[in-house]
Amino acid sequence: MKITYHSTRNKDITATASEAILNGIAPDGGLYVPDEIPKLKVSFEALARMDYAHVAYEVMKLFFTDFTEEELMACIKGAYNTDKFDTEEITKLVEADGAYYLELFHGRTIAFKDMALSILPYLMTTSAKKCGAKEEIVILTATSGDTGKAALAGFADVPGTSIVVFYPKHGVSRVQEKQMVTQKGKNVNVIGIEGNFDDAQSAVKAIFTDKKLAEKMKAKGYRFSSANSINIGRLIPQVAYYVYAFSRLYPKQINFVVPTGNFGNILAAYYAYKMGVPVNKLICASNRNKVLTDFFETGVYDKNREFFLTSSPSMDILISSNLERLIYEIAGDKTAAFMKDLKEKGKYKLTKEMKEKLGLFVGGYAEDAEMSQAIADLYKKEGYIIDTHTAVAAAVYNKYKAKTGDDTCTVIASTASPYKFSRAVLNSISPEYDKKDDFELFDELHKLSGVEIPEAIRDIISAPVLHKTVCAKDGLEAEVVRIYKL
Ligand SMILES: *Cc1c(COP(=O)(O)O)cnc(C)c1O
């Protein structure tokens, strides 16, 4: 069965999988969604016997139906191997304190973004070939900290592509920033912006849908695409690890707890549910920027609120782009009007009937103090150390479990290595650590956790800073014009 894609804002704007991957975002500013979410074709017993690459194939082949088996397998084999991941399993399940932590950070940049961004460049270049696109693909990326580095690592020196990453200059961790500004490669550009992730993402989306700019790009032999989770080439590969995790545990039902920012990771869990994974609850965990918690409670999405910088910076987001795909599931044709309201008034309100369709989701949030407590408690109980984002999820899950008594088998998406946020992680265990410099902290974390210092950390310790450009929050387009001489 062939799956085609269409815009969440207009059913008549359609694309094949490879066109959707290549375009990144639909021309009307909507997000591509599949006409139908396909059901898994093999049993969980069979999936349980497969390695990660084969599970990924079983998932992706159902969505990327215009890829041949050879093409898709080549993409998968290029991405999920021990050159790019530090474990043959690709992702690990660790049981601790009554839940399973699905460690999604064994890729090159030690955050879960590698799970999808290790394969996206393969999917993108294969799609370009299939579509006969001759232009150089320009990847424009807004990052809250982790996508940037994972995309840079994925696209660096990939022929036929170049990449520009915009990150909030004052909104990422030291390690995140250092990882990005030391990136090597002839085709990479990294720019700090004087603004937050939402500013970066809105500006990038505006550039994507600017027809005049697209024409200028075309005349120069370029075309834009996206490495953000608005691209289905990123979203679909993420579905695979939820199917994989379930197949390793195979309980009656399962809860997934996902530390959420742009709503990509948890939407992938929802797609896994639609494919046949028997999900009991999807627990959407937020930090102090709890716009999603309020949304699931009230049915009102309202971004008009104070924005906070927290110790889980990759979740410091008030406009969760991928929520649009979930809204489309429950609101259909009304989606475009809601998104217009969001843009113009900063808010929209679901009808009662629509809200009732969201029963699978539970929203919850944790303040930084609760997050820190979760890190310290888990360390004391189990000797297991989690990063700040994962700890937001753990804290939210603990509160949920205490409140509901739900004892369904639960998997918590562990989205980053604690090394990426060593200072905040170690400060949670003892304030004494704050006196030490960053490099000492890596050694301390190694002593406490017994986990080797990852190559990603060792690499940046001595690497020179190569990217120093900073621009105003309304200056992104000018940077693109400068880089590509438009
Ligand atoms: C990106 C990110 C998140 C949020 O994921 P979304 O798909 O944006 O919801 C959570 N934790 C970490 C470490 C991340 O890098």
Show the helix and strand layout.
Layout: E1 5-7, E2 10-15, H1 17-23, E3 32-34, H2 44-48, H3 52-63, H4 69-79, E4 92-96, E5 99-103, H5 113-117, H6 120-131, E6 136-142, H7 146-155, E7 161-168, H8 174-181, E8 188-194, H9 197-208, H10 211-219, E9 222-226, H11 232-249, E10 254-259, H12 264-275, E11 279-286, H13 291-298, E12 300-302, H14 323-331, H15 335-345, E13 347-349, H16 352-356, E14 361-365, H17 368-382, H18 388-404, E15 410-414, H19 422-429, H20 438-449, H21 455-462, E16 470-472, H22 476-484
Parallel strand pairs: 5-15, 6-7, 6-9, 7-8, 8-16, 10-11, 10-15, 11-14
Antiparallel strand pairs: 1-2, 1-3, 4-5, 12-13
Helix pairs in contact: 1-6, 3-4, 3-11, 4-6, 11-12, 17-18, 17-19
The protein binds pyridoxal-5'-phosphate (PLP).
Question: How does this model look, in words?
Answer:
The protein has 486 residues and is of the alpha/beta class. Helix content is 46%, strand content 17%. Strands 4-5-15-10-11-14 form a 6-stranded mixed sheet, with helices on both faces. It has a 5-stranded parallel sheet with strand order 9-6-7-8-16, sandwiched between helices. α1 crosses α6 and α17 (368-382) crosses α18. The longest helix has 18 residues, at 232-249. The radius of gyration is 21 Å and the shape is globular. The termini are far apart. The structure holds pyridoxal-5'-phosphate.
Instruction: Give the C-level CATH assignment of the domain at 92-111 and 233-451.
Output: Alpha Beta
The main sheet comes to:
6 strands, mixed
Total DSSP E strands: 16
In the sheet with the most strands, the strands line up as 4-5-15-10-11-14
CATH architecture of the domain at 92-111 and 233-451: 3-Layer(aba) Sandwich
Query: Count of helical segments?
Result: 22
- Kindly state the mean pLDDT as a whole number? 96
What would you call the shape? Answer: globular
Give the ligands present. pyridoxal-5'-phosphate
Going by helix content, strand content and strand pairing, the class is: alpha/beta
What is the CA-atom radius of gyration, in angstroms? 21 Å
Q: Between the first and last Cα atoms, what is the distance in angstroms?
A: 42 Å
Helix content: 40-55%
Q: Which spans have pLDDT < 50 for at least 5 consecutive residues?
A: none
